[in-house]
Amino acid sequence: MLSRTSSAAFFIALPTIRVSGVAKANRRRLMSEINVVPYIDVMLVLLVIFMVTAPLMTQGIKVDLPEAISGPLQVSDNEPMLVVSVKVDGTYYMNVGDNEEAVKLSLIAERANKIISANPDIRVLVEGDKRLNYGIVINLMNVLQSAGAKSVGLITEPPKQ
């Protein structure tokens, strides 16, 4: 026989024992087991949801990056970055955090200056398509340096082997 108290703890009732004509009830023992099966079910559902949605959360402009042998860039998750992308057709995109938008070259200097002055430690990176004219990427790097970027890095892909 199970009984529930107001504190939602379960007790197991033990049979009463008669000793010398007086009925004594044994003390009820607290059931100290937690049913974790529902928690495991919820965790598995959350795991499946994250596994399905993680590939969908990739962001960025589709750019065919040049290949170069270089070490990976050490970046922490909370470090701010300004990424300026140039597609093969010459369109520029600015990416700060999750916000990404097409921008004309004439406005990049103004916007980059505001971003860099608000956060002087921001990393500035250029992502250019490998089929672009070299002069376009260099011109973009000059614009970013004139906007106040201390250094401008290039994003590449490791060579395919």
Task: Name some characteristics of this structure.
single chain, 161 residues, alpha+beta, Nucleotidyltransferase, domain 5, 5-stranded mixed beta sheet, 3-stranded antiparallel beta sheet, 10 strands, 25% strand, elongated
Secondary-structure blueprint of this entry?
Layout (H helix, E strand, L loop, with lengths): L1 E3 L5 E3 L3 E4 L2 E4 L3 E2 L6 H17 L27 E6 L5 E5 L2 E5 L1 H14 L4 E6 L5 H13 L5 E3 L7
Helix pairs in contact: 2-3
Task: Provide structural commentary.
With 161 residues, the protein is of the alpha+beta class. The chain has helices at 37-53, 105-118, 134-146, and strands at 2-4, 10-12, 16-19, 22-25, 29-30, 81-86, 92-96, 99-103, 123-128, 152-154. Strands 8-7-6-9-10 form a 5-stranded mixed beta sheet, with helices on one face. Strands 1-2-5 form a 3-stranded antiparallel beta sheet, with no helix packed on it. A two-stranded antiparallel ribbon has the order 3-4. β3 (16-19) and β4 (22-25) form a beta hairpin. The termini are far apart.
**Rg of Cα set:** 31 Å
Average the pLDDT over all residues and give the rounded result. 76
- CATH architecture type of the largest domain: 2-Layer Sandwich
Give the topology string: H per helix, E per strand: EEEEEHEEEHEHE
Q: Quote the CATH topology of the largest domain.
A: Nucleotidyltransferase, domain 5
Please tell me the total number of domains. Answer: 2
Structural class: alpha+beta
Q: Which strand order does the major sheet show?
A: 8-7-6-9-10
- Let me know the number of strands: 10
How much helicity do the residues have? 25-40%
Low-confidence stretches: 1-8
Through-space gap between termini: 69 Å
Question: Could you give a short account of the major beta sheet?
Answer: 5 strands, mixed
Query: What is the global morphology?
Result: elongated
Number of helices: 3
